């Protein structure tokens, strides 16, 4: 597109999942598109592009944000973690294992967003209440699961996390 | 959809930002958290020629609280203000309202000042600023002005911030002693914009009778609707106030419109219910804070 419109491209450097990545992007490139198209990381999904569904959620310097509501140029020089970066040394993270164990996913479209959101949530709150879990995932939509197993998975992930650190 | 093209400016300091805004004039827009602007761009409802990205201006990521109130800088994110202990102590309504603004993930990026400039009549923070009688500080190349909340909200999605101007901070005044606040709203889902919502502030005298009571209503007019109900409450203890009469007094002052989410009549009804709920909550809060002050005085 920008090749055709002759738009100015900005050279940016992002640390994505611990790896330094460079890209030349027009200013209007959404971070979601930069990750998927420029960097080939298609784990981050795009549902609505107006902040409502949460599928595109990634971690920016450790905090969950909507990648569809962030320009890639704005986060030049920052650290991004996508769903591809959650597994540790080839082993699924506690949150990923809990989602798999509790059937917290069906088609998997919403899952990358849930995983990133929940990973940051359980890092900051290791023993969440039911209320807190509901609030934490309230910004992510899932058309398949009916949410009950997702809620179970979050609690299970907290358990796994506690078992493994204790 | 994808945003239309624009010229991108990433100033290294405030002066440079104001210069870029001055040059861009009516074609320029500030990019703060992007949580309202980028959806508009993605949906192609806005197509500014120039965006001035203030995310690098970390000197604007400030929150300072003293006895007079809380000043929030243009790059202070909703989440940071919500978590700030001193802001919460001086003006608890900030955190009470922010818990209702969108979802935690949106609050990680969105800014309080951006929310004020965006001036959505359904948004919580404009109602908070209006209720407290706060102000917004607008800077332009070679000048600065403070605009009172009363004059800042001009219409739906329209604030007093002119082309070439940037909002650098907003000030949320503290309330006198024995005051309390509450924010109550009804939304289709938690985190959605409110179908109706009410922010309330109540101040009690030494005998715990109401000496000041105000509400600000969202989603029922082009701008937040502030109504002073001190007279209707009539210097009585909260338990003997005729809350139905207070609710009616507010309902007479609002001009709700119907849309796909709610009819005008339903919004009017909800506002009445929420006025009572918020004012009672604020009065309880005021009584608690009065009791605590008295306790500290004795100790
Ligand atoms: C799914 C979703 C749900 C939401 N729900 C709510 C909700 O329930 N309640 C609510 O209040 N908000 C809600 N929001 C909006 C959110 O609070 C935004 O963060 C806020 O409205 C705008 O702040 P921002 O920093 O993101 O501004 P931006 O999106 O960057 O900017 C918004 C507008 O303000 C202008 N602007 C921003 N900062 C300045 C400045 N310093 N000086 C001059 N102009 C400026 C921009 O040019 C633009 O016109 C929601 C957003 C999403 C995506
Ligand atoms: S694609 Fe970003 S929130 Fe839906
Ligand atoms: S698993 Fe299909 S949308 Fe959530």
UniProtKB/TrEMBL annotation, chain A:
PROSITE patterns registered for this protein in UniProt: 2FE2S_FER_1, 2FE2S_FER_2
Domain 2Fe-2S ferredoxin-type: 10-86
UniProt GO molecular function: 2 iron, 2 sulfur cluster binding; metal ion binding; oxidoreductase activity
Keyword set, alphabetical order: 2Fe-2S, Iron, Iron-sulfur, Metal-binding, Oxidoreductase
Metabolic or biological pathway, per its Swiss-Prot or TrEMBL entry: Alkaloid degradation; nicotine degradation
InterPro entries for the chain: 2Fe-2S-bd, 2Fe-2S-bd_dom_sf, 2Fe-2S_ferredoxin-like_sf, 2Fe-2S_ferredoxin-type, 2Fe2S_fd_BS, Beta-grasp_dom_sf, Diverse_Oxidoreductases
Pfam family, one: Fer2_2
Protein name: (2Fe-2S)-binding protein
Lineage: Bacteria, Bacillati, Actinomycetota, Actinomycetes, Streptosporangiales
From TrEMBL, chain B:
Name used for this protein in its record: Carbon monoxide dehydrogenase
Lineage: Bacteria, Bacillati, Actinomycetota, Actinomycetes, Streptosporangiales
Domain FAD-binding PCMH-type: 1-177
PANTHER family on file: XANTHINE DEHYDROGENASE SUBUNIT C-RELATED
Matching PROSITE patterns: FAD_PCMH
Keywords assigned by UniProt, alphabetized: FAD, Flavoprotein, Oxidoreductase
Any Pfam family the entry gives: FAD_binding_5
Domain of life: Bacteria
Species the sequence originates in: Planotetraspora silvatica
Any GO molecular function: FAD binding
């Amino acid at each position: 597109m920008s090749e055709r419109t002759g738009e100015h491209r900005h050279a940016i450097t992002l640390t994505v999942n611990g790896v330094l990545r460079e890209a030349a992007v027009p200013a209007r490139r959404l971070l979601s598109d930069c990750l998927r198209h420029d960097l080939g990381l298609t784990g981050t999904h795009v549902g609505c592009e107006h902040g409502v569904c949460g599928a595109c959620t990634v971690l920016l310097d450790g905090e969950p944000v909507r990648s569809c509501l962030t320009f890639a140029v704005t986060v030049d020089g920052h650290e991004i973690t996508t769903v591809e970066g959650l597994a540790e040394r080839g082993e699924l993270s506690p949150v990923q294992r809990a989602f798999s164990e509790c059937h917290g996913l069906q088609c998997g479209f919403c899952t990358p967003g849930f995983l990133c959101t929940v990973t940051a949530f359980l890092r900051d709150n290791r023993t969440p209440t039911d209320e807190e879990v509901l609030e934490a995932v309230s910004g992510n939509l899932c058309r398949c699961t009916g949410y009950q197993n997702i809620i179970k998975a979050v609690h299970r992930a907290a358990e796994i996390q506690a078992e493994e650190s204790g | 959809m994808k945003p239309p093209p624009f010229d991108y400016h990433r100033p290294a300091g405030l002066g440079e930002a104001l210069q870029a805004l001055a040059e861009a004039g009516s074609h320029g827009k500030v990019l703060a958290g992007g949580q309202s602007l980028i959806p508009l761009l993605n949906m192609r409802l806005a197509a500014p020629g120039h965006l001035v990205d203030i995310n690098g201006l970390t000197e604007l990521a400030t929150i300072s609280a003293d006895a007079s109130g809380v000043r929030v800088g243009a790059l202070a994110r909703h989440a940071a203000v919500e978590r700030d202990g001193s802001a919460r102590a001086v003006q608890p309504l900030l955190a009470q309202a922010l818990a209702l603004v969108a979802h935690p993930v949106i609050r990680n990026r969105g800014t309080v000042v951006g929310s004020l400039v965006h001036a959505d009549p359904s948004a919580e923070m404009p109602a908070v600023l209006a209720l407290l009688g706060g102000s917004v500080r607008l800077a332009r190349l070679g000048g600065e002005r403070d605009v009172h909340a009363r004059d800042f909200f001009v219409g739906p999605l329209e604030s007093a911030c002119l082309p070439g101007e940037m909002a650098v901070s907003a000030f949320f005044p503290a309330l006198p002693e024995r005051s309390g606040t509450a924010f109550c709203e009804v939304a289709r889902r938690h985190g959605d914009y409110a179908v109706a919502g009410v922010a309330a502030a109540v101040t009690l005298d030494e005998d715990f009778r109401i000496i000041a009571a105000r509400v600000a209503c969202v989603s029922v007019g082009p701008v937040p609707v502030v109504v002073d109900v001190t007279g209707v409450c009539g210097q009585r203890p909260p338990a003997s106030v005729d809350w139905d009469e207070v609710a009616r007094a507010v309902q007479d002052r609002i001009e709700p419109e119907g849309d796909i989410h709610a009819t005008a009549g339903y919004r009017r009804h909800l506002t009445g219910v929420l006025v009572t709920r918020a004012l009672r909550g604020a009065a309880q809060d005021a009584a608690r804070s009065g009791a605590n002050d008295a306790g500290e005085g004795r100790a």
